[in-house]
Structures are given as structure tokens and as C-alpha cells.
Amino acid sequence: MGERSASGEESRDRALAEVDFDALLREVLARVHGLLDEQDRLRHLLDAVVAITSGLELDGVLLRIVRSASSLVGARYAALGVLSEGPERQLRTFVHHGMDGDVVDRIGDLPTGHGLLGLLFDDPRPLRLRDIAAHPASYGFPEQHPPMSSFLGVPVRTRERVFGNLYLTEKVDGQGFTETDESVVVALAAAAGVAIENATLYEEAERRQAWLSATAEITSLLANDTTPHQALQAVADRARSVSGADVAWVVSGSDPHDLHLEVVAGAPVDREAMDALPMKESLASFVVRTGVPVAVDDVSADPRAVDPSSLEGWPRLGPVMVLPLRSGSGSGVEGVLSLAWTSERLDIFQRLDPALPSSFAEQAALALQLARSREDRRRVTLLEERDRIGRDLHDLVVQRLFGVGLGLQSTTALLPEGDAADRLRLAIDDIDDTIRDIRRTIFALGTLETSTDLQSEIESLVERAAATMKLRLKLRFEGPVRTTVPPAVASDLLAVVSEALTNVGRHANASSVEVRVGVGDDMLEVSVVDDGQGMPEDVLRSGLHNLRERAAGHGGDLVVQSEAGLGTTLTWWVPLGPPPE
């Protein structure tokens, strides 16, 4: 028994003698240090998660993510590539850490998503490499780029969408990235996705607030004494500012074939060049006809679009969003609001939620309707006041002058021929001229200088003349009078029709009159034909001098044909081109 015990102790002693206590101790210490490193990494990971979620500004969140990732795994360089919103999977933003500003300037343009960066877009899974250059998808580095070998790439997700990729290169200790490094970065990327989503929601809320503020500003502006043109300009300015567009413009009109580019924000205004744009075949015409908003990625490539980039001073435009100006679903479209960006800023266009500017456009249209209603009320008030003044002039002043003229005319018969009789006749003629001028003024009071519907103004003028003179009066239009006659000619046209009808009422003793206003062959022609007694010779010589002067001012002329008992035909014509030198 004693011998067996002694031999067992002896074998244990030999086994202990063969053990390398230093190696064992080093292994134990390594495991202890590994556990401590893991705990330290977990603590740093938690600190990093807290750090990246400490703010809501997206740019700040992205920068904190790359800095935290670089510190956690000991990477010299870190970057976060953000994907664009469109179908093309390209880098929209590239946030980097580790390179000095001078190095970045020497490298030049930031990456666009080729090589390994693009590989992670197509296959969003963690990728760990010992040597970047050895991978078949490696695209190489540009000149002046610092050397890089080890690589770790991890996708950053927001819900089910890949927001971008986190890239880490050049482990500080010169070794490759480990599985533990990958696990840490994957965990950080998961937290980064949450932080990015929160920051994105915050940005969306700020954008919505900006659109609401813009709508409130427009409503407040239109509540004051603002003209419709000023209101449209304010709509274009605010829409461009809030959307980040390069150019914004407003096209007015409810007829798809009769649209006009009214105001522009962000580009010079050349009214003549803008009026020459074929708006009846454009995206604006399509939106007015259908009432549906339209967005295109490239205005120059869409066959339905008119590209305003050809206008002098305008940038070369790419994406365009065209929104109907309509106050509510039951109202017609009164125009469109267009927002356009250059091709280099396609990502801003793609990030814009169309519902925000669409809502702004509807509210702006409602505010514009209120402004126009206020303007219409002002015009009605002005017309009522003018009508009252016209009635007073006609019923009081004209009748008194007419009575004075009749009294002087009867007195003339009692005077012998001589200077006194001639002076009295001259006074009677002056009274007649004054009555004619007052009647022309009465007709002019019924029209507004700012009116744009020339045909309606002529119709109203003729109707008032028919009611005043108790005649059968026929009016006929030929050609596009409403859209062809320029404003400078329109004012004289109204005066000519008014004075011609006044002369008929004073001298013709007619029972019916026909007025024809025609446009054709680049010429405007007005004819007034009556069935009266014909014009006296003195009226033919001097009474129509004013009409001849108005025609001559535009390079035209006046022709009068009259015979006693056979009526009179007055023809007034002017060219529709520029007046002669």
C-alpha cells in the first residue's frame, strides 16, 4: 500500500515537471485581457451609440457615425456613402474622416459609387478584405490618394431600405480587420440606422414646417393691398426658396391653348422671349388640361415639355416639377407653378415630397382667388363711380351745353351778317366740339385701362352707344381681335369707335349703324357704316382730324366715303407691325 502511494506521487511530480507554466500563464492572461478588451469595446460601443443619437441634424449624425466607427475598430480612415433616392444606385453624399483638407483638395472629386463602393450597393452585406487591390471589383484610387489595404464595409439600413454604406480602411496596428471588428461595426451600423431615420424624420418635419410657414406668409401678404402680379411673384419666390429649386415660374390661364408665363424667380425676365415660348404644347398645358401634377427628371428629354433653358441668362435645367394652381378638387385649374433644378442637383429634386409643394400651390391658388376677388370689387366700385360721373355729365352738363347751343343758334338768325354773327357761330362750334369731347369722355369712363379683353370692351361701348342714341346698331368681329391687337393700338381703337359713333349720333340722322372690327394680313381695320343723310363738307375737312392723327401715329390712315342721302362709310386702318420711322 505504501509502495503504490509513493509511485503515484512520483508520476504526478513528473507530469507537473513537464508543464510550461509560463505558456500557461500567458494563455490565461491573454484570455483575461481579451475579456477586458471585449468589455472595453462594449463600453465604447455603448458610448458611440449614445454619441450618434445625441443630435437630430442629419449632417452632424453622419459625421459622428464615421468618427465613432473609426475609433471603435482602430481604423485610420472612415467614410459613409449615402445612396441617392432615384433608381440609379449612386452616391448622393460622401462623409469622410481621417484625411486632411489639403489631401482632399488634391484628390479632387469625391467617389460616385464605382468599384467596391458600388459592389456594396448591389450586394448590401458586410465585406471584409485583407487587401483592397486584390479584390476583382477594386476600381483603384485616384492620384494623390493615400495608400489603403485593409477594408471593412457594412451596410447602414433604415427600416427595409439601405440608406448607405459604412467604409473603414487601414487598421492602425497594420493587421487586417477581425470578425470582432466586423461584429462591432455591424452593431454600430444598426444603431446608426435608427439615428439616421430619426434625423431624416426631423428634417422632413422641418421641411413641412417651412412649407406651412411659406403658405402663411403668402396668405398674410395677400390679405394686404397686393396686386395679383405681386402675389404671383411672391408665390414663385417663396416656392423656390423652400424647395431649394434653382428656378421657379408661374404660368397663368385656364385654357391649355392660351397660357402666359407671368413671373419668374431665380432667372432674368425677358418678357418678349417668354411670350414667344410655345406654351400651348408644354407640360404646363398638359397640367392645365388634366389637373394632374407632373414631375420629369430631364425637361430637355421629355417630348411634352418646353425647355426654358434656351432663354438668355437661364441655367441649363434638368428635373422639373409642374403643379396645378387649383383651390380645391372641385375648382378649375387657373395656371401652374413650376419648380426646376439643374442636373447637378437631381438629388434635391428626388428628396422633395411632391405633396408638400402641391399643398402649397393649392393654398396659393386660393389666396390668389381672394386677391383677384378683392381686385374685382375695386374695379366694380371704380366702374360704378365712373358710371355715376358719366350720367351726371350726360344728364346735366351735356344737356345744359346743348340748350345753350340751341339758344345761341336761334339768336344767330336774328343778327345781321357780320363779325358778331361769325363770332356767335364760332362759339356754337366750340360748344358742339365740347359736347363731342364730353361724350367721348363718357364712353371712355366705361372702360378700364387695365382691362385685357378688348373684344368685350368694344361690345360694351357699342351697347352703351346704342342705348344712348336709340339706334339699331350691329357689331361684327373678324379675326382674332382679342389676342392680336397690341395694347398701344387698343386704346386708340376704342377711342375711334367711340368718336365715330358720336359723330353718327350728332350728324347722320341715321336709323341703323353697322360697326365692323377686323384683323387680317397684319392689319387692323375698323369700319362704321350708317344709312343717314351723309356728312356735311366741313365735317369731312376738319371734324375727323383727331381720328386721322390716331391712325397716322401707327402708320395708318382714315378714309371717309359719304354722299348726301346715301349715308356714310368711315374706314380706319392701321398696320399691326411697328410704326414707321
TrEMBL record:
Keywords associated with the record: Kinase, Transferase, Two-component regulatory system
InterPro entries, per database record: GAF, GAF-like_dom_sf, HATPase_C_sf, HATPase_dom, Sensor_HK_TwoCompSys, Sig_transdc_His_kin_sub3_dim/P
All copies of domain Histidine kinase/HSP90-like ATPase, residue ranges: 488-578
SMART domains, A to Z: GAF, HATPase_c
Highest taxon, organism lineage: Bacteria
All residue ranges annotated as the GAF domain in the record: 57-206, 227-378
This protein's record includes keyword RNA-binding: no
Protein name listed in UniProt: GAF domain-containing protein
Organism: Nocardioides pinisoli
